[in-house]
Amino acid sequence: MRSALVGALAVVLVSACSSAAAPTTTAPSLTSAPAVSVVPATSSAPSSLIAAPPSAPPVPSATSGSSGFVDLGAAGAVQFDAPLGSDFAALAGGFLVTTDVDGGMEVYELSGKLLYTLSVPGGACGAPDVGFGAIWTATCAASPGLARIDDSSFYAAPVDVGGATDPSASVAAAEGGVWLIRAGARNELIEVNPQIQSRSVVFSEAAPDGASAVRAGYGAVWVASPSLGRVTRIDPGSGDVVATIDVGHEPQLLAIGDNAVWTLNQADASLSRIDPATNGVVATVSFGEVVDRSEIAFGGGYVWVRGSTTLLYQIDPSTNKVFRRYGPATGSGGVAADDSAVWMTAHDSTTIWRLPLDIRTSASERLTARGHS
């Protein structure tokens, strides 16, 4: 059952967050928001497109690369310049938002133009999530523990959750709240009130053993425990554990999509598909190579895994198999996807890739791959 509120943890949002104007070609004024630094892209900022995306990308052979991967360039991918160190990625309010290894964030137009570089209170760490009109990220510093970045003004505000969070994991923004793991004498699953004017911890329960990553959807909060190889399903209303589900080794990150919860198991290079209707693993996808320090996303009808040896995996939920591998490899980084494109970062590179998607072409390819004409 829900426990009592943990102390007086209400936090008042920086006043500029509710009064900031929508972004323009210049950065918002900082005079009314001294806790937030927003630096506009200038002529020296890397923001030029290298090429314009085609209206419909060609369909290359799955063996067009020297190692059995599809070359991103042959697939119609666009490169655009980015600061060195880009890491996790998310799509919010019609923009691409990336974190970087120094704890900051960058905001891009979907065409690739760099608009702003953001200073995040406490430094952005881990995989962010988008919901309730904002981007939410754990912080590298123990205080505030969580930060809220408005998805229209891009003002960043601290959210004090009363303790440190896991900077290598993820937060969730769905099912009525913002969810994360707070570290302490006992790890706790925290729900934060996402309302605009205030932030308060409204829910605290002992977290599952070894808890790290969190995502929410299909009427539940899903918590991965890498050390146990387990995902725990939690009722967002009561905090009760509904199910514990054994997956692969070290399930570090989660994605929600296609009536499934997907766990990226980094130690055994696999992907587990959980059916929320049965709370069981119904399929396992093996990559056959290292996927350490990777990210996972769902978009355009596919699961996308940002790999290490392989730059990007495209997994077809209709077959639960790797549909395509993209290369060449460029270190580790993040991935974000919607129905129009997939974006990939690499924190050891100054390039972000945008791979356009054609949903009609994808559907036709799926039928062909399954032997239908």
Keywords:
single chain; 373 residues; five-stranded antiparallel β-sheet; five-stranded mixed β-sheet; disordered N terminus
Short description:
The chain is mainly beta. The chain has helices at 15-19, 359-369; strands at 11-12, 37-40, 70-71, 78-81, 86-92, 95-100, 105-109, 114-119, 124-131, 134-139, 145-150, 156-160, 172-174, 177-182, 188-192, 198-199, 201-206, 214-217, 220-225, 230-234, 241-246, 251-256, 261-265, 270-275, 280-286, 295-299, 302-306, 312-316, 321-327, 335-337, 341-344, 351-356.
Could you please describe the fold and organization of this structure?
The protein has a domain at 59-82 and 292-373. The chain has a 5-stranded antiparallel sheet, with no helix packed on it. Helix content is 4%, strand content 44%. The chain has helices at residues 15-19, 359-369, and strands at residues 11-12, 37-40, 70-71, 78-81, 86-92, 95-100, 105-109, 114-119, 124-131, 134-139, 145-150, 156-160, 172-174, 177-182, 188-192, 198-199, 201-206, 214-217, 220-225, 230-234, 241-246, 251-256, 261-265, 270-275, 280-286, 295-299, 302-306, 312-316, 321-327, 335-337, 341-344, 351-356.
Percentage of β-strand residues: 35-45%
- Name the overall outline: globular
How much is the radius of gyration in Å?
20 Å
Strand order of the largest sheet: 2-8-7-6-5
- Tally of DSSP helical segments: 2
**Percent range of helical residues:** under 10%
